[in-house]
Amino acid sequence: MNVVETNRLTKWYGRHEALRGIDLRVAAGGIVGFLGPNGAGKTTALRILLGLLRATAGRATVFGRDPWRDGPAIREQVGYLPGDVRFYDHLTGRRIVDFADAVRGSRAQTEIRRLASVLELDLDRRVRDYSRGMKQKLGLIVALMHRPKLLILDEPTVSLDPLVRQTLFEELRAVADDGRTVLFSSHTLGEVEELCDQVAIVRNGRLIEQDRIDVLRRRALRRVEVVFDGDGPLRRPPKGLHVLRESDGRLSGTWVGGVAPLLSWLAENPVRDVTIAAPDLEDLFLAYYTDEKPEDAA
Questions:
Q1: Which residues are CB-contacts of 42 (< 8 A; sequence separation ≥ 6)?
Q2: Helix axes 132-144, 109-118, angle to 10 degrees
Q3: For residue 278, which of 231, 185, 214, 197 has the smallest C-alpha distance?
Q4: Are residues 139 and 270 in the same domain?
């Protein structure tokens, strides 16, 4: 079952088309990264899913319901962290989480205490005395504390130090292990690659790719460096090897796809040394962000 579905989802702001017919699918029980450069349309799409914005055209459903028409019912089952989280400065963190707990009727005090402990946040200080990172922690507690079926997080790691970021990742993995769903936006490849089962890539308001991380990794480039005995290879390189430089018995290039054909070719040549780097997802994602079309896997 898909927790989130969109069909040709479109949003105009005056003459600016922020979303251009997005078809997104998010299945239950996984972690999906919504990846793209700033201004790509990620936040607009998330706000439509929450019923905070109305789509210009197309259709979106969350739990099979229309977010604009059934927004209050949907939001009861969603934890949301906006990209620029803000709270009343004169209140303490505890007043804020207690208010959210009372409004939801969630009786989440045990989970509030646990999250405040693992995120190392003092809830008895006023928000005006919080750093940006502390405010982000408070926003995460408010989003997570009622154990929602769906978490929608807009740039959740902003202002978090590396140790807290890893703690958050552990919490999100636990959410997915519990059969609940995480959809979070990011423009940072590393955290998406580390955390997500699947990634959806948006650019200029269009969804240009959605697939599992392992599938995308098979399309990514491997850097290949070979040193031969003698002047060079005896046999022509296989089709998947793109040679960048070759001289004095040394070859540098890139390889896309499974490595079995490459290894067979190397075994037929007088190789003194070889380096085959791990798939470079960064190059693949940069290609998605530009007008270059990534190659298909071999």
A1: 34, 36, 154, 185, 202
A2: 150
A3: 214
A4: no
| 3-class DSSP string for 104-144 | HCCCCHHHHHHHHHHCCCCCCCEHHHCCHHHHHHHHHHHHH
Total-model pTM = 0.82
Instruction: Quote the tokens at residue 124.
Output: 């008895």
Residues 176 and 258 in one domain: no
Counted domains in the chain: 2
Q: Which of 189, 213, 237 is the last residue of a domain?
A: 213
Judgement on whether residues 229 and 208 belong to the same structural domain of the protein: no
Secondary structure class of 84 (helix, strand, coil): coil
- Looking at residue 195, its amino acid is L
Provide the edge-to-edge strand list for the sheet that holds 271-276: 241-247, 250-256, 221-228, 271-276
pLDDT, tens only, 201-212 = 999 999 999 999
| 198 neighbors 210 (Cβ within 8 angstroms) | yes
Q: Contact at 8 Å (CB) between 98 and 146? A: no
- Residues 29, 151, single domain; the answer is yes
In this structure, are residues 202 and 35 in contact, taking their beta carbons and an 8 Å threshold? yes
What is the percent of the chain with per-residue pLDDT over 70, rounded to a whole number? Answer: 97
State the average pLDDT over residues 76-102.
Answer: 96
Tell me phi and psi for residue 67, to 5 degrees: -65, -35
| C-beta atoms surrounding 239 within 10 Å | 9
Share of the chain above pLDDT 90, in %: 77
In tens, the pLDDT along 239-262 reads 889 899 999 999 999 998 788 999
Q: Does the residue 298 lie in any domain?
A: no
- pLDDT for position 257: 79
